[in-house]
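The material for today's practical consists of a large collection of protein records. There is nothing in a record beyond a sequence line and a structure line. Backbone structure tokens are a discrete shorthand for how the chain folds in space. Nothing more is needed to start thinking about how sequence determines fold. As an example, a complete record with its sequence and its structure tokens follows.
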Amino acid sequence: MNQLQNIDLKLLRIFMTIVKCNGFSAAQAALNVSQSTISEHMTSLETRLGVKLCERGRCGFRLTEYGTATYEAAQRLFLAVDTFCMDTSALKRHISGKLYLGIIDNTATDSDSVLSRALRKFVSHGHDVQLDIYIGTPAELEGRVLDGRLHVAIGHFPFEVAGLCYTQLYDEPDGLYCSRYHPLFDNPPGGDALIEAIRESQIVARGFLQQHDLQLLKSSYAAATVDNVEAQAILILTGAYLGFLPRHYARQWVNAGQMRQLEPEQFGSKWPFASITKRGATQPAILRLFMEELMSHAYSSSA
């Protein structure tokens, strides 16, 4: 495919829908065409590209190595197309287009998060905009901003990556929790006795903060490692593990008597949340407007 044509863009959009739906059958409703038509489109795209994009059959739907690379390249392509449309609409003093936003998981319960307030103000301007939101781990968000699949992402990023611009927004406090099924739930000891009891317990650590979690608990290893907050909560609720959770997220189980926070002053931290954008990249008008709203709420009190 030396030169893109309109039919190529159409076929690539169909391909992206198939991937998002995880198969031909599920994509029928989204595309409103028959499975045989989808198959014809895929064959045409594979012929144009000269590679096999996916395996389909009794074993289910699976992208090939070429298919994964093509899907990621297509995401970058359509982000560039949307950016072009936004820039040209800005010339007419009209902000429109699609904002590709990444967010770390389970922040909806945080009343101190600036995101919901910024989005509320952003959409209230009445601009003809669309939001495409991706939920991912810190590393996934950084990777997608770097390769152009996201305009901006918001989350906790323990280590700064070259090529990205980090802007601090607010802090998220966390704490150490156990469930009602854990021996420390009722009358936990204090002082050194608590430290020893924690060391004898099974710890579930956050993958991107594993060393911090273990050092704070004076433990040498994690019995389990997770890459998102929901998985962390699930293991803590079993009663077999101790682990850290954002306080806003754990509050629902604490209020229901299903979790207890252990020694808030000793085992609590505040994690800075930041927005990340690609360093040196030209920002489309829609991103500039969103960043203005985001920064206007940074480190402000809850609305």
Summary: The longest strand covers residues 164-179. The two ends are 51 Å apart (CA to CA).
